[in-house]
Design a protein that fits this description.
357 residues, Type Iii Antifreeze Protein Isoform Hplc 12, eight-stranded parallel beta sheet, two-stranded antiparallel sheet, 12 strands, elongated, antifreeze protein
Length: 357
């Protein structure tokens, strides 16, 4: 299975590719398509890679009693939970309109399919990838159906155990090679003590052949940036135009200035991650020339003297001499010329010294 793959046309994730940033609009559009368009444009302007929504076919996601239960929260858009959800749910035609707008803006567009029928619609809509919400991570019939569609998948893991996520991995892997798992804690907003970023490293060990990412619901951007520094290849954050708006997710969402700063910080961290190969870089050479240390003579050493450790010291020397890390190789070898006290010991002065350059 690939550690990197194409999540959307022309956009690879994993490996040394830039972190893929999903702006989760969800249902923060307040049920207004013009607000949804503004949020798509905002996500693009802030530098996100993808604008994502949540699509439900309500009668397939909820049973009748769930839709009929009274909903009196301050965030309610209706007297029952069904009325509330219907207010926030866009039609198929509206989704096509939003997809067209996202294409015009130049940003990837997808949604979490919140039930099997929503997945069927999103497949018909030809989204670049499927997002699996945490509430469906242990819904194995749903996972199998979605994986068989053959589109890349991004799977959040809130509310799940490692044992469940192992089963998720095996279930999806059987049908689909291109997927990523995101560490996630399903609380809105999320306290830092419950983020559990260390799970990213555990997922990297458990599932070494897929990219691992992070879906965050905390306030601010610092923790998400830390997740990228720990190796998250995909990040997802809820976004809003105004945190004071009605809705459960707004408080855990990023406003435009925060999303802009998050993207900037993630790209900066991406530049800083490098290759993992430890070596002297070209940018360090000037410092090395100025401050790099060499082996010097503690005492005057006549030509022909066999060197011992007590004759040798380490200083910034001019000219540059043998590197301190090779000082042990000098012991037991004779100098081929006189060396003055405090003078640099250069490779050509020592008989039989293997200069590694």
């Amino acid at each position: 299975m690939p550690l990197k793959f194409e999540l959307g046309p022309g956009r690879m994730i994993g490996g040394s590719n830039p972190c893929f940033i999903i702006a989760e609009i969800g249902q923060n559009h307040q049920g207004e398509i013009e607000i949804a368009k503004k949020m798509i444009k905002m996500a693009k302007d802030c530098g996100a890679d993808c604008a994502k929504f949540q699509k439900s076919e309500l009668e397939y996601k909820f049973n009748k009693r769930a839709l009929e239960r009274p909903y009196t929260s301050k965030h309610s858009w209706g007297k029952t939970y069904g009325d509330h959800k219907r207010h926030l749910e866009f039609s198929h035609e509206q989704y096509r309109e939003l997809q067209k707008y996202a294409k015009e803006v130049g940003i990837f567009f997808t949604a979490s399919g919140m039930d099997e029928m929503a997945v069927e619609f999103l497949d018909e809509l030809d989204v670049p990838f499927f997002k699996v919400a945490s509430c469906d991570a242990n819904n194995f019939p749903y996972l199998e159906l979605t994986a068989k569609k053959g589109r890349p998948m991004v799977i959040s893991s809130g509310m799940q155990s490692m044992a469940t996520m192992r089963r998720v991995y095996q279930t999806v892997k059987e049908h689909n090679q291109n997927f990523t798992i995101l560490q996630c804690t399903s609380a809105y907003p999320l306290d830092p003590e419950d983020v559990n970023l260390c799970v990213i490293a555990e997922y990297q060990k458990e599932f070494p052949d897929i990219p691992i990412g992070y879906s965050g619901h905390e306030r601010g951007i610092s923790i998400t940036v830390a997740a990228v520094a720990m190796g998250a290849k995909v990040v997802e954050r809820h976004v809003t135009l105004d945190k004071s708006w009605k809705g459960n997710d707004h408080e855990a969402s990023l406003e435009p200035s925060e999303l802009t700063e998050l993207v900037r910080a993630i790209r900066l961290v991406g530049r800083a991650q490098g290759t993992g190969i430890k070596q002297m870089l070209p940018c360090e050479k000037a410092c090395h020339v100025k401050l790099g240390k060499s082996v010097v003579a503690k005492v005057a050493i006549p030509k022909g003297t066999v060197l011992s450790m007590d004759m040798l010291g380490v200083k910034v020397g001019e000219p540059r001499g043998v590197s301190p890390e090779d000082m042990g190789q000098l012991v037991g070898k004779a100098v081929t010329e006189d060396v003055e006290e405090d003078g640099s010991i250069t490779p050509r002065m020592v008989d039989g010294y293997n200069n590694k350059g």
